[in-house]
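As promised in the previous annual report, we have extended the structural survey to additional targets. Below is the entry for Putative restriction endonuclease domain-containing protein.
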Amino acid sequence: MQILIRLLKPIEPWYNFTKEVLYLEEKPLEFEFERWERIDSVIYDMTPPPSSQHQAIVGNLYGEFYTYLKGKQCKAFPAPFGVWLDDENDNYVEPDITVICDQSKIHPKGCVGVPDLVVEVLSPSTALKDKRVKLRRYQLSGVREYWIVDPLNKIVEVYNFSENVFTEPAVYGKDETINDGILNDLAIDLRNIFD
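The corresponding structure token record, generated without further manual editing, is:
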């Protein structure tokens, strides 16, 4: 109930991406300096901040994506980077890494529309949400590929949603290379990610 009350307090104008459809026009003042996500109209607090291990893994992975995508149509963005998955304003997320191949979805404040690939690095405070709530939301929204990086077990689960059918993820261990998926010739040696 406390979050509901917080959402009803005064709000300030925030950002209007397009004239045709308005995306998250107003943002609650209480969240101005906090990180939060909205999934299926439910607000999720993103505090406490991620650990140094989490950030190192995000940095290592982002470096691999950045190097691979340099000069190509797709672009990678590390968190914090806002993603509005729909025009109903029910789904605003900040994935750890977002890959977008349709340049028209990239706006000054983030991504408006469904990205092609999303990466989430698990933290104790977000693991359940990342593995259940976000997995379902990303699939239903049309994300083509979703990576869940587990620092504790040193594995990466890669979900391919291209066929709009749920399939078991491909699971890669710390000594393996991810070399298949929607980015055809991308090869990421996980020894470089978990070090």
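DSSP finds four helices and 16 strands in the chain. The first strand starts at residue 11 and ends at 13. These points will be discussed at the next consortium meeting with the crystallography subgroup.
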